[in-house]
Amino acid sequence: MADRPSILIVEDDHHTAEMLAAYFEGQGFQVFWAAWGGAALRMAQEHVPDLVVLDIRLPDIDGHKIDGYEVCRQLRTQRHTEHVPVIFLTERRERIDRLSGLELGAVDYITKPFDIQELRLRVRNALKRSRFETLVDPITGLAGAPLIDEKLAALLSQRDWAVLCVAVDGLDKFAEAYGFVARDDAVRALGLVLSNTAFEGGAAPESAFVGQLDANRFLIVTGMARLQDLRERLGVRLKQAINYFYPARDRRARASARPLLILSLGAVTSASGQFESAEAIRTAAMKSLTRL
What we know:
18% strand; single chain; Rossmann fold; alpha/beta; 10 helices; Alpha-Beta Plaits
């Protein structure tokens, strides 16, 4: 997240939109404004905001009806925007409306007329939660890229370390076939396999560090003494587990009849060469990947 957070206001009432824009710009935000759903979705793709304030009732444009619920739904189906916090700001007060918004993944629901100071505090709280979530992956709960880079940077002054890299390819096709929930379940299951394998047998918490670089790549940092054993056990566990990433109805299907998930495993160690940065270690680990 940038030092100057960005907020996308999706509101068709010009007076309300201008008031919100002026207020949040005065609070140090970079503000974008869209008056209808299609424009909001385009803006969110061109410049991913840190937070969205979204009205439910939005106008039809050229016969296309994209209300706030649909905007939120589409934001949640795009990888770049699926975790952007959304606050509904609307005149709708019915319980069913509130539940519908929260079921779509909105972090808050505020009804009009509203107190601007209350909205500011709710925006602040949502951004604080979002900043924390960037440190851990929201699906697996594993350490995210910032914490991984800290761990790798610390290795530069250490000896006898090893970094294992695990990747799963084919998740986009998997999601097309089974849906995003099934994809997230598969990624979550993979994260559990890695964590359980790294710490099984009573291994001390400090003996390994497990993190998730992005949607399909994971790293395990450990000592060179554990590398061979951990690598072998990971290979076995991953081959055993991959069939269970699929929905039960397809677990006995031929591989050619279902979207293929490809697992790769690699490793780099302190003996692999001179590394000048965390990025260099990360790049070397990813280049070491070979298909299981």
